[in-house]
Amino acid sequence: MYDGEEQPGRNDACWCGSGRKYKKCHLDFDERLQGLYEQGFEVPERALLKSAADIEGIKRSAAINIGVLDHVAERIGPGVTTEEVDRWVHDYTVEHGGIPADLNYEGYPKSVCTSLNEVVCHGIPSEDDVLQEGDIVNVDCSTILDGYYSDSSRMFCIGAVSPERQRLVDETKKALEAGLAAVKPWGLLGDVGAAVKAHANACGFSVVREFGGHGIGLDFHEDPFVSHVSDPGTGMVLVPGLVFTIEPMVNAGKQEIDMSDPNGWTVRTADGSDTAQWEVQLVVTEDGYELLSW
Ligand code: MF3
Ligand code: CO
């Protein structure tokens, strides 16, 4: 079939684990996907499509991730160090039975990413980074619970920020929402990034190309890569059961990034301009999508 796997017999148990006969379960679904595959569309392999039980597991993980960010939101403000934010994230996650997915991920040293002002992503919490009135910071959290992954991030404005920074933060969220509005079951992933880019560019902002969203659920980063600068009418078919993030990084200045920090992680705008990011995790459903983590 479309993913190189064997098609079950009509009366066999369905591959999705529902316990129902294939013909009463995913047979029509597979035939629809097979048709798209034969027309040349990029279709997800079955292993990327989450079962109802997987979605429940991801939601339990996501409940911690949402709770962590709510916990941060209640405490963050002027005078807080990003090291403290890291401790809040770590302790809340562990106390709720989860594991911070960032910690030790490819050698990453902390439990969360804190990306301040001109930092695009992967800012490492530090005692030396004291949040000041006027700063904008992205806090990006990821949780593992019972092997299920969740991932989302929010922007926080520290005290009163300049109108320019406020606009960047607000319009980046709207760019993400424009992307969400383009998520249609059996639609195409490229339409999502195209909508994000169109909104950001209409505001006079640029969109980072090198980093994007990703499939997620049984692993931290799964296929597909979710570009936020894609062309409409391209990319993977948005099949119900596909779980992924949308997480645009929007720069006030030019799109180019600087990855030369010797710590190997921190990514900055090349021109030193401000940048913002919001991230949600969602599942494509039969009639739209459901947000899992924000
Ligand atoms: N949370 C990031 C994402 O949105 C990944 C961070 S990986 C880390 O995909 F190692 F930098 F923490
Ligand atoms: Co992510």
Describe the structure.
It is a single chain. The chain has 5 helices and 15 strands. The protein has 294 residues and is an alpha+beta fold. It folds into 2 domains: 31 residues, no CATH class; 248 residues, Creatinase/methionine aminopeptidase superfamily (Creatine Amidinohydrolase, Alpha-Beta Complex), CATH 3.90.230.10. Strands 1, 2, 4 and 5 form a 4-stranded antiparallel beta sheet that branches. Strands 3-12-11 form a 3-stranded antiparallel beta sheet, with no helix packed on it. The protein has a 3-stranded antiparallel beta sheet with strand order 6-10-13, covered by helices on one side. Helix 2 packs across helix 3 and helix 4 runs antiparallel to helix 5. The radius of gyration is 20 Å and the shape is globular. Bound molecules: 2-amino-4-trifluoromethylsulfanyl-butyric acid and cobalt (II) ion. The site of cobalt (II) ion (CO) has 5 residues, from loops.
Order of helices and strands: HHHEEEEEHHEEEEEEEEEE
Average predicted confidence as pLDDT: 98
Q: Helical element count?
A: 5
Distance between the termini: 35 Å
Percentage of residues in DSSP E strands: 15-25%
**Structural class designation:** alpha+beta
Instruction: Please provide the count of β strands.
Output: 15
Q: What is the subunit arrangement here?
A: single chain
CATH C-level label of the largest domain? Alpha Beta
Query: What is the CA-atom radius of gyration, in angstroms?
Result: 20 Å
Instruction: Name every ligand kind in the structure.
Output: 2-amino-4-trifluoromethylsulfanyl-butyric acid, cobalt (II) ion
Low-pLDDT segments: none
Architecture per CATH nomenclature, i.e. the level-2 architecture of the largest domain: Alpha-Beta Complex
* Helical proportion, percent range: 25-40%
Count of domains: 2
CATH evolutionary superfamily of the largest domain: Creatinase/methionine aminopeptidase superfamily
Find the CATH topology of the largest domain: Creatine Amidinohydrolase
Largest beta sheet, briefly? 4 strands, antiparallel
